[in-house]
Design brief:
Number of domains: 3
Number of strands: 18
Radius of gyration: 40 Å
Shape: extended
CATH topology of the largest domain: Rossmann fold
Distance between the termini: 156 Å
Largest sheet: 9 strands, mixed
Strand content: 15-25%
Strand order of the largest sheet: 10-9-11-12-6-13-14-15-16
CATH class of the largest domain: Alpha Beta
Length: 395
């Protein structure tokens, strides 16, 4: 039989048809690979250009900062510096420092503090007045407010009638009103705040900004800072007092903040951050010989000499007695009073140890320990050991 080989229909043609798609597939893969290769090269070029731009930015920043490249840590973010500002971690900062010469050229900066209350408080300053409970802080401040509301002479300094704000958070409002009436305060110039509400600082700001008083009395710190759970904790104290002080320094008024003193009578109660925040610390102590006399010692950013006042119950007034005891005399008196309390406690509670004595007499633990040591050395007390504690020595 004669074999007929028709093109496109024989075995050879079938194989060719089967291989054609494979050939087409290989051609397609080759074209796609070429495109992928070109995309990779394009991306590589983009990365190179980005690196070049970043290097140029870093070089520009270093040149502006005039820093050698070797001193720029590789782990730190780039810092962009201009004469007016600096870019740190993506945030731009501007210098706020003022040249001393500019400050000194302003007369207001060189003026002495304006003492709204002689010996006590200056405008745009915060004074902390500390004393033992019921020692007469509120009575003294009420007398000052009454005098300033009428105007006239206050301890040798002439004053004009002025507006005053009394933030009475500790006593019943009726007691406050009767005291002001007895001291003949001008009812139009004295405003009284019973409560500062849930946001004491904001409400105090509103009272001062609206009323514009020349003097503000806050009675007392513990009631104003109701959120201050621990007055011995510096971070808690700073959180309360820092925004208050920042506002007072520009409010236009003098502010007196009343606070309780320690049991030993040797300063204010609580953390040292309280004294660090205020401008003046004023300590008031009772005179040991005269129950109507109060001695004052001040320290702080304003120089105020020690002085004494005497209360006249008949006229409900305070007389200025001039210079008071020296700081050394006040410290010596505090030591004597502490030693007396330690001896009395040991007489009534023989056998108590140092911890129990510290809790009972109050004051700084180091001061109590020093008093115990001095009394034992002097022969006033005997220490019978850790278990038997201290007893009063018999003659």
């Amino acid at each position: 039989m004669k074999r007929v080989d028709v093109k496109g229909t024989g075995p050879t043609s079938a194989k060719s048809k089967k291989k054609a798609p494979a050939s087409k597939s290989r051609a397609g893969k080759g074209s796609k690979g070429a495109m992928t290769s070109r995309g990779a090269r394009a991306r590589a070029k983009e990365r190179q250009r980005a690196k070049a731009v970043a290097a140029e930015l870093v070089a520009t920043s270093l040149a502006a900062a005039q820093l050698p490249a070797a001193k720029l840590p590789t782990a730190e973010p780039a810092v962009s510096v201009t004469p007016e500002s600096v870019l740190i971690d993506g945030k731009r900062f501007y210098a706020v420092a003022e040249p001393l010469g500019v400050l000194c050229s302003q007369p207001a900066m060189l003026e002495a503090p304006d003492m709204v209350v002689p010996f006590f408080a200056a405008r745009n300053r915060l004074t902390l007045l500390s004393a033992r409970e019921k020692a007469g802080k509120s009575t003294l401040m009420a007398y000052i407010v009454a005098q300033l509301s009428r105007g006239g002479d206050l301890w040798g300094s002439p004053t004009a009638p002025q507006k005053l704000l009394w933030v009475g958070l500790e006593e019943w409002i009726g007691d406050c009103a009767r005291r002001f009436m007895r001291m003949q305060a001008d009812g139009k110039n004295v405003c009284v705040v019973r409560s500062l509400g849930s946001d004491p600082l904001a409400q105090l700001k509103a009272e001062i900004m609206i009323g514009k008083p020349s003097l503000v009395i806050i009675d007392s710190l513990s009631r104003f800072a109701s959120g201050m759970d621990d007055e011995n904790n510096a971070s808690v104290v700073n959180k309360i007092l820092s925004p208050l002080v920042d506002f007072i320094h520009g409010c236009g008024a003098a502010v007196l903040l009343l606070h309780h003193g320690t049991k030993s009578g040797g300063g204010y109660r609580g953390s040292g951050a309280i004294g660090a925040q205020v401008d003046v610390i004023m300590e008031m102590v009772e005179d040991p010989q005269d129950p109507t006399q109060r001695n004052f010692q001040a320290r702080g950013r304003i120089e105020i000499p020690s002085f004494s006042l005497r209360y006249n119950a008949e006229t409900a007034s305070f007389d200025h007695l001039g210079a008071g005891p020296s700081p050394e005399a006040i410290k010596e008196k505090a030591q004597v009073d502490l030693a007396h309390r330690v001896v009395e406690h040991a007489r009534e509670n023989p056998g108590n140890g140092s911890n129990a004595i510290r809790r009972a007499v109050g004051g700084r633990g180091a001061d109590v320990d020093l008093a115990l040591k001095s009394l034992v050395t002097a022969g006033t007390l005997r220490h019978l050991g850790r278990r038997k504690g201290y007893v009063v020595a018999t003659a």
